[in-house]
Design goal:
The structure is a single chain. The protein folds into three domains: about 190 residues, no CATH class; about 110 residues, Orthogonal Bundle (Arc Repressor Mutant, subunit A); about 100 residues, no CATH class. It is about 40% helix and about 15% strand. Strands 12-13-16-14-15 form a five-stranded mixed sheet. Strands 1-3-2 form a three-stranded antiparallel sheet. The radius of gyration is 30 Å and the shape is flat.
Length: about 450
């Protein structure tokens, strides 16, 4: 599938971070590893979800994660401004830590001018005060009163943890914004999984590139599992090149060749006949993966570098059927209800790994759209799957499709805006397909996302 312009608008909504799903452990382990699974499944609820099952999916997960980070960056900035005021008051009072309230801070016009958004009431300052208390800058004294925490040694306000968080979260947020803007399942904001090839839409060229990339990776992995036969130095102590791609772990017994010279017949990958090496020149054999000789170490480093490039090529080649692990599981479960579709994606897709282009095999009508009844049934099945309490919980969804008749059918059932229109979503031959955005109700940041929200509501970086 070719790269296309963004298909739908992104609308603001409250950021959501919710409890981790349970189940599909084997699939997660295969995709992300045991440690990632443990961290993901151990997560606890932090924010009450703002999206319900089968609701209209307003905002991309990428944007919601950015909203969480931007809010924290703003609170940290406000916290630093309050800390600066408290430090100045301490200095003016010769280190005496005077109690204060939110109302005291609100009365400082210079401080209020620095805060964003500008607080109108004392309650508006509470999130900043909670953050300062979490990082040990202030301590609650009861009755809405707080006291600055002064370091006993330096006699200065204790702001080291606050400053470290402000720097770290600020940098991470900026880098996350860049990654999220890619909308690319190969550089995702969460754990991804490959959609079963039987369900995957893709051009013949895309599938061939994936097959070629798989072969390249397999070939390099095979070479790292092979062996190197080392040789004794030649004349003047000059190193002889080793015999590589040897497929046995131990040296065969020497035997005389036609000239009466004892040789070792070495089986070498890609060679029809064994490679004969004079026994007197053989110094030993060692695995490519663990050998310690300079020649083997150099070979291993070169192969590992090639393998890394080959794996990156394969990841890109698999991009057309790489989705958020929640979305891949959703499509698997949808397939148990409906077998008329395949799905695919591409870089810069609307919601990245949470978007899928659906191609139906139900036939087209005279207007160049999918036949109405089976297409409607497909969307009904999408809604039913979204209502399932599956391994990753329930989903919200929306679609893009240009058939006004389908919009008229779906609107009364699932909401007037559930299907919107955009160029290149039919009728045939203009890229006939249905675009779906799928948003887990329980949206959970993970190790790939790079952060979580702890029970105190603070962003913590992995």
């Amino acid at each position: 599938m070719r790269e296309r312009a963004a298909e739908t608008e992104i609308q603001p909504a409250a950021a959501v971070v919710a409890p981790a799903p349970v189940g599909v452990v084997a699939r997660l382990q295969a995709t992300a590893g045991n440690r990632a699974v443990g961290r993901l499944l151990a997560r606890r609820p932090t924010v009450t979800p703002q999206v319900t099952a089968a609701a209209y999916a307003k905002t991309s997960p990428q944007q919601e994660y950015m909203d969480v980070l931007h809010r924290e960056v703003g609170l940290l900035a406000n916290g630093r401004s309050v800390a600066a005021l408290l430090r100045a008051r301490l200095a003016a009072a010769s280190g005496a830590a005077a109690p204060f309230t939110a109302a005291d801070l609100l009365a400082d016009a210079k401080l209020v001018k620095q805060l964003k958004p500008k607080p109108a009431t004392a309650d508006d300052l509470q999130p900043t005060l909670d953050l300062l208390a979490y990082y040990g800058v202030i301590a609650a004294k009861g009755g809405g009163s707080y006291e600055p925490v002064v370091d006993a040694t330096t006699k200065d306000l204790k702001t080291a943890a606050l400053e470290q968080a402000a720097t770290g979260v600020g940098r991470f947020s900026a880098s996350f914004d860049t990654r999220a803007a890619l909308k690319d399942s190969v550089n995702p904001v969460g754990i991804t999984s490959l959609l079963d090839p039987a369900l995957a839409a893709g051009a013949a060229s895309e599938k061939k590139e994936e097959q070629d990339a798989e072969k390249a990776v397999a070939g390099l992995e095979a070479q790292l599992a092979e062996f190197v036969v080392l040789k004794t130095p030649g004349g003047g102590g000059k190193p002889r090149p080793p015999v590589t791609r040897v497929t046995v772990a131990t040296l065969p017994a020497p035997s005389p060749n036609k000239a009466g010279v004892d040789v070792l017949a070495l089986p070498v990958a890609g060679q029809k006949k064994p490679v004969e090496v004079p026994a007197a020149e053989v110094a030993g054999i060692e695995p490519v993966a663990t050998g310690t000789s300079d020649q083997t170490v150099a070979l291993r480093k070169a192969l590992e570098a090639k393998l890394e490039r080959a794996r990156r090529r394969l990841e890109r080649a698999q991009g057309y059927h790489t989705f958020a692990i929640e979305v891949a599981d959703f499509l698997d479960r949808l397939r148990t209800r409906n077998t008329t579709f395949v799905g695919g994606t591409y870089p810069k897709h609307d919601w990245g790994e949470f978007s899928v282009d659906i191609f139906l095999n139900v036939g087209e009508d005279a207007q160049g759209f999918y036949e109405l009844d089976p297409a409607e049934k497909f969307l009904d099945d999408v809604n039913d799957t979204a209502n399932d309490d599956g391994p990753f919980g329930k989903f919200a969804w929306r679609a893009v499709y240009n058939d006004d008749r389908m919009i008229a059918r779906i609107g009364p059932k699932y909401g007037a805006r559930r299907i919107t229109k955009a160029p290149h979503h039919g009728p045939a031959p203009d890229k006939l397909h249905i675009h779906l955005d799928l948003r887990p109700v329980d949206l959970v940041p993970d190790l790939t996302t790079g952060f979580t929200v702890n029970p105190s509501g603070r962003v913590q970086l992995f």
